[in-house]
Write a structure and sequence with these properties.
By secondary structure, this protein is an alpha/beta fold. It has helices at about 15-25, 40-45, 55-65, 80-90, 125-145, 165-170, 190-200, 220-230, 245-255, 260-270, 275-290, and strands at about 5-10, 30-35, 50, 65-70, 100-105, 115, 150-155, 155-160, 175-180, 185-190, 205-210, 235-240, 260. Helix 3 packs across helix 4 (about 80-90) and helix 4 (about 80-90) packs parallel to helix 5.
Length: about 290
């Protein structure tokens, strides 16, 4: 039986984790590149590079794909993945059975610590969040218009090996920034990849899923726990007003919400292996020490 094929537009941290997961199950993976220098890196990982600006190569990759994952963030003109892929999809020679678009829980805006679900009204408060709202809308409209199985995934902060509070503490960059009542959700990158795989197995046109853990909490709590795991001093708390954050970081801390993953659990049969940051950080550290 021929292997199934995944095409990734925007090959980053989350996409790499999904690619590795599916490769172990016999999938063939292709990913777009923007620079010729990126080709060698993908070759090492067993992934076929596809120049994002090569319309003919992209059309062939789309024709061969069983699933397409779009992770590239939107710009002022919308989603670059949509602009690049729709002409290839419009050829109609073959259509993928699943198109996944990675969005953000920033589309919900600030809820003062309250819970949100996929049915909550969108109320983005940042430019980045507003662009994601537009990209979601555009992908759903294209899906309906072209008969594509487009699914949206709203993601919180992503952490995992090489990208966690443990790494920031070791680098001396971790700060316990505090803002009254501020909480947010997060997800381990392996749980994110597992959620995407579950959706590929159960494609749903127009589906929208929050993929996050079960324990939204304050950043300071996570840093303190990670410090304990490493046997390092817990960094002092820094009030948000005194943190001297960039405008982007200030916008992040201006929002507080708890994100429900109930729909993903009910419809995809997905459960996070790391339901809280405690299991996730402990597993990262255990793998490092193995």
């Amino acid at each position: 039986m021929a292997s199934r094929r995944l095409l990734i537009f925007g090959y980053g941290y989350a996409a790499r984790t999904l690619a590795q997961r599916l490769q172990l199950k016999g999938w063939t993976v292709a990913a777009t590149i923007r620079r010729p220098a990126d080709r060698a890196k993908l070759d090492v990982e067993g992934i076929t590079p596809v120049p994002a600006g090569d319309k003919a190569a992209l059309a062939l990759a789309v024709r061969d794909a069983d699933a397409v994952l779009v992770t590239a963030p939107p710009d002022a003109a919308g989603c670059p993945g949509l602009r690049a892929l729709v002409p290839a999809l419009a050829l109609g020679r073959a259509l993928p059975s699943w198109i996944g678009y990675l969005s953000t829980t920033g589309v919900y805006g600030d809820r003062h610590g309250g819970w949100v679900s996929e049915q909550s009204a969108l109320a983005a408060q940042s430019l980045e969040g507003a662009r994601r709202v537009g990209a979601e809308r555009d992908w759903l409209e294209v899906g309906r218009g072209m008969g594509l199985t487009v699914t949206l995934f709203r993601l919180p902060g992503i952490y995992g090996p090489g990208r966690s509070a443990l790494d920031r503490l070791r680098a001396g960059e971790a700060r316990r920034i505090t803002a009254p009542g501020q909480v947010f959700s997060r997800i381990h990158v392996d749980d994110l990849a597992a959620g995407l795989e579950a959706s590929i197995a159960r494609p749903r046109a127009g589906g929208v899923y929050n993929l996050c853990d079960d324990a939204p909490c304050a950043n300071a709590e996570v840093i303190a726990y990670a410090a304990g795991l490493l046997g390092l001093p817990v960094p002092p708390e820094v009030p948000l007003a005194e943190a001297g954050l960039s405008a982007l970081a200030q916008r992040f801390y201006a929002e507080s919400k708890r994100v429900s993953n109930a729909r993903a659990k009910a419809e995809l049969g997905w459960r996070p292996t790391y339901p809280t940051y405690r299991e996730g950080l402990a597993a990262i550290l255990a793998a490092e020490r193995a």
